[in-house]
Amino acid sequence: MNLLCVVMAFAAAVNAAAADGGARMLLYVDNSLGDDISVIDLGTLKVVDTIKVGNQPHALCAPADGRRLFTTIESEKNLKIIDTLTGKITATIPVTGKPNECAATPDGRYVGVPIRDGDSLDIVDTQQKKVVKVLPVKTPHNCFNSGNNNDIYVSSMGSNEIEVVDLKKMDYSARIPTGGIPRPYAVSTDEKRLYAAVTNLHGFTIADIPARKVIARVELPPAPPLDCPLEVNTPTHGLALSPDDKQLWVTSLADGGVYVYDLVTRKSSPLIHVGKCPNWVAFSPDGKYCAVSNSDTNDCSIIDAHTRREVARVKVGKGPKRVLVVRVPVS
Questions:
Q1: What is the 3-state secondary structure (H, E, C) of the chain?
Q2: Does residue 235 contact residue 254 with C-beta atoms inside 8 Å?
Q3: What's the rounded Cα separation, in Å, for the pair 16 and 14?
Q4: What is the pLDDT along the chain (331 residues), one digit of tens a residue?
Q5: C-alpha–C-alpha distance, residues 57 and 177, integer Å
Q6: Under 8 Å between Cβ of 230 and 248
Q7: Is the pTM of this model over 0.85?
Q8: For residues 288 and 244, is the Cβ–Cβ distance under 8 A?
Q9: Distance CA 13, CA 205 (A)
Q10: If 0-12 CB within 10 Å is exposed, 13-18 middle and 19+ buried, where does residue 188 land?
């Protein structure tokens, strides 16, 4: 009987992998006050690996094929490349200063790395394994890629805008205002709308990218005073678009939860309760799960995106912030 159960379980696992194209959905969580990245298998909702990367990991990004993971290390001032199949670091690329949140092109050729203490943006060529361009930007913080190989976005906290880099020209092609100091942000797949959390706003702003202007300022329900050591004056820090671009999921650090803003009806859902000081948000590519890092309780909430219920709260490392779900090939 035991052997039969083992065989049946193995067959079920094989069938599940085949149904997803022979891939695993892995959630990576960077523990910003530690020296590692926690890896959660969304098939089991359990930690399956802890990758030591160096003190103060600040970023997570990955190309579309899921075979590599990129992370920046503030203490070492470098970008590291991790093999997602083995969990091993395969390359370390020096950058020009203290790196923040990165973004990779889908083909994995380029990675944008904001240099906070250098007022600049490093463009790293992963084939050459070096910085190939440095662009000026006032107080950069987060990079973003909307799903194409042509451009990368970088936020300028010093200029209250998001700047767009044309990767063919290796120069700026547009500047989009955010109506405040930009924190995390998201860009629609068609690159027509930009959604930004901004300092001192319990909510977010919406910008029309082609028109280069802010078109809306959305306020979430009133929240209690903010008490989150890792974030100051930023009651809303994390936001992410659902894979179909119909919903914007927004964290409320003060409320300890997440709101879902319907982009068609322009209405917010009731609060989805998670851990203390929810920081960053990421969807699984299939849209099944939404992951939220809880920076003050050192755990990560996994939410069923359909029922909008928390299905697991997984302990990770110290000070979790950035989260990223990657479809990793089994072989």
A1: CHHHHHHHHHHHHHHHHHHCCCEEEEEEEEECCCCEEEEEECCCCEEEEEEECCCCECCCECCCCCCEEEEEECCCCEEEEEECCCCEEEEEEECCCCECECEECCCCCEEEEEEHHHCEEEEEECCCCEEEEEEECCCEEEEECCCCCCEEEEEECCCCEEEEEECCCCEEEEEEECCCCEEEEEECCCCCEEEEEECCCCEEEEEECCCCEEEEEEECCCCCCCCCCCCCCCCCCCEEECCCCCEEEEEECCCCEEEEEECCCCEECCCEECCCCEEEEEECCCCCEEEEEECCCCEEEEEECCCCEEEEEEECCCCEEEEEEEEEECC
A2: yes
A3: 5
A4: 344 443 343 344 444 444 455 899 999 999 999 999 999 999 999 999 999 999 999 999 999 999 999 999 999 999 999 999 999 999 999 999 999 999 999 999 999 999 999 999 999 999 999 999 999 999 999 999 999 999 999 999 999 999 999 999 999 999 999 999 999 999 999 999 999 999 999 999 999 999 999 999 999 999 999 999 999 899 999 999 999 999 999 999 999 999 999 999 999 999 999 999 999 999 999 999 999 999 999 999 999 999 999 999 999 999 999 999 999 998 7
A5: 28
A6: no
A7: yes
A8: no
A9: 43
A10: middle
Give the type of residue at 98.
K
**Rg of the chain, C-alpha, whole Å:** 19
d(CA 235, CA 233): 6
Judged by phi (left if over 0) then psi (alpha if -120 to 50, else beta), residue 321 lies in alpha
Question: Which structure tokens are listed for 180?
Answer: 């405040």
Say how far apart CA 22 and CA 181 lie, in whole Å: 42
For tokens 């923040």, what's the residue?
Answer: 100
The residue type found at 106 is P
Question: What amino acid occupies position 208?
Answer: D
Cα–Cα distance between 244 and 261 in angstroms, integer? 13
Contact indicator for 136, 115 with CB cutoff of 8 Å:
no
